[in-house]
Specification:
InterPro entries: RES_dom (IPR014914). This is RES family NAD+ phosphorylase. Residues 112-250 form the RES domain. This protein has 8 helices and 10 strands. It is an alpha+beta fold and 277 residues long. The protein has a domain at 31-56 and 129-182 and 196-274. The strands form 2 sheets. Strands 2, 4, 5, 6, 7, 8, 9 and 10 form an 8-stranded mixed beta sheet that branches. A two-stranded parallel sheet has the order 1-3. α8 (206-218) links the parallel β5 (160-177) and β6. It is globular. The chain starts with 17 loop residues before the first strand and ends with a strand.
C-alpha cells in the first residue's frame, strides 16, 4: 500500500430534461449580466476530479435512461412503490427542467443537485445543490480528506477506513473567477475585481454562501476558486448542471481515520491498495 501524506427523501415531481449536452444557444442579456458584476473566465477542465463516499451509487437512474421521456415513464412506473429509487433520485424539483440531464455520465452530476446537504457548504446555504470538483485528483483528495476528517472528528468515530469513489468529469464553460489574476502574457480573466477575500475563509462560510446565492440568482453557472485545503490547487463549484458532462467512476479510495485524523489515503486496485504518493 502506498501512503498519501496530505489530503454527498425523494419527492414526487414531473420529470423532464435533456439527454446529453444541450446544443449551445445564444446567451440572453440575463444570462451574461453577471459577467458585468463579477470577474469571469472561460474554463475547460477535461477532466476535472471529484471524490464522494461510496454510499452514493456510481450509476443511478439518470445514467440508465436515454431521454427525458424514458425517465418519466420509468419513474412513474416504479417511484411510487420503490423506496430505493425515490431515495436514489432525490428531489428533481430542485433542478429546473431545462437543466435536467439524462444518459451515461449524468447520474453523479444530477445527484449533487437533487440531494441537499442541509448544513450547507462553502457556496451553498443548504437550499440548493452544488457540484464540487477540482482541477487535479490531488486537490480533490485534499479537499475531501479535510472535510471527511472534520466530520469524523465531530461525531467522535473510532478508527475506521472510509470508502470513497474518485470520478472524472468534463467541466467547460464561463464561470465567475476567484482565482488570482493571471501573470502578464497569459490569457486573462475579465470583469470587475476583486472579490471579498472572506469568501475563502477556512472555517467561516457566510461570505461564500452570500456570494454563491448572488451568483446563482444572477445566472452564473459556477465559480472557479483557489483550493483552501491544497496550496496552489484549483476548485470548481458548479451551480448548474450545464457546465458538466461525462462524470464517470475512475478509482476506489480509502481514507484511513486513526481516531484523530485521516493519516493515510489509499487507492484500491483489484489485488491490493496502491500508493498514491
Amino acid at each position: 500500500m502506498k501512503k498519501h501524506t496530505t489530503q454527498e427523501a425523494a419527492q414526487k415531481s414531473t420529470p423532464g430534461g435533456t439527454a446529453g449536452p444541450a446544443p449551445a444557444s445564444p446567451a440572453s442579456p440575463a444570462d451574461t449580466d453577471w459577467q458585468t458584476r463579477w470577474r469571469s473566465a472561460a474554463l475547460d477542465w477535461s477532466p476535472a476530479f471529484r471524490v464522494a463516499p461510496t454510499r452514493f451509487p456510481a450509476v443511478n437512474l439518470f445514467d440508465r435512461v436515454a431521454s427525458p421521456e424514458d425517465f418519466e415513464a420509468l419513474y412513474a412506473l416504479e417511484a411510487l412503490t420503490n423506496d430505493r429509487l425515490r431515495t436514489e433520485t432525490g428531489d428533481l424539483d430542485l433542478v429546473p427542467r431545462e437543466e435536467r440531464r439524462f444518459g451515461p455520465g449524468y447520474g453523479p452530476i444530477m445527484a449533487a443537485f437533487t440531494h441537499l446537504n442541509p448544513q450547507g457548504s462553502r457556496f451553498s446555504d443548504g437550499t440548493y445543490g452544488v457540484f464540487y470538483c477540482a482541477r487535479t485528483r490531488a486537490t480533490a483528495i485534499a479537499e475531501t480528506r479535510f472535510h471527511a476528517g472534520r466530520f469524523l472528528a465531530a461525531t467522535r468515530e473510532p478508527p475506521l477506513r472510509q470508502q470513497m469513489r474518485l470520478y472524472t468529469v468534463i467541466a467547460q464553460g464561463t464561470v465567475a473567477d476567484l482565482r488570482p489574476p493571471p501573470a502578464p502574457g497569459q490569457a486573462s480573466a475579465h470583469g470587475p475585481d476583486p472579490f471579498d477575500p472572506a469568501v475563502l475563509a477556512p472555517d467561516d462560510y457566510a461570505a461564500g454562501q452570500a456570494l454563491g446565492r448572488a451568483l446563482r440568482a444572477a445566472g452564473a453557472p459556477g465559480i472557479a476558486y483557489p483550493s483552501v485545503r491544497d496550496a496552489g490547487g484549483e476548485c470548481l463549484a458548479a451551480l448548474r448542471t450545464t457546465l458538466l458532462h461525462a462524470c464517470h467512476h475512475a478509482a476506489y479510495l480509502e481514507y484511513n481515520w486513526n481516531g484523530e485524523t485521516i493519516d493515510m489515503v489509499f487507492e484500491l486496485t483489484a489485488a491490493y491498495g496502491k500508493a498514491l504518493r
